[in-house]
Amino acid sequence: RSQMRDIQDKGKKIIENDVKLEKIKKLGTNNRQKEAIRFILQNGKITVNNYQKVTSCIRKTAQRDLEDLVKKKIIKAVAKSPTDPTKHYILL
Questions:
Q1: Angle at Cα 53 formed by Cα 51 and Cα 55, nearest 5°?
Q2: Which of 4, 8, 55, 71 could make a disulfide contact with 32, Cβ separation 3.0–4.6 Å?
Q3: Number of domains the chain contains
């Protein structure tokens, strides 16, 4: 019974992720941002360092792209302070 529930939950999550991706595509994101969104869907969150590694871009570009996604209300920043070294981003 719990195995069936796990399968249902995984299926539901896949469908939810597909719906999120379709909405995000309509908001005009670049290829780096799409890659970052996939990373968040798989890992639950992303940091600026993760973004740099995943997209092979410089830090300033990573910060600018992530802020753009925040402005578009696709992700939100999670931090205890503006200079929090553990700052990361999650999907809304």
A1: 65
A2: 55
A3: 1
Select the highest-mean-pLDDT range: 16-20, 24-28, 34-38.
34-38
- The residues pairing with 88 across neighbouring beta strands, listed in sequence order, are 78
- Domain holding 85: CATH number? 1.10.10.10
Can you tell me the distance from the alpha carbon of 58 to that of 64, in angstroms, rounded to the nearest whole number? Answer: 10
Q: Could you report the per-residue pLDDT of 48-63, keeping only the tens digit for each?
A: 999 999 999 999 999 9
Tokens found for residue 8: 């249902």
Please report which residue ranges of 27-87 form alpha helices under DSSP H. 31-43, 48-55, 59-71
Q: Are 55 and 32 in contact (CB under 8 A)?
A: yes
42: containing domain: 2-91
Which whole number is the average pLDDT over 81-87?
89
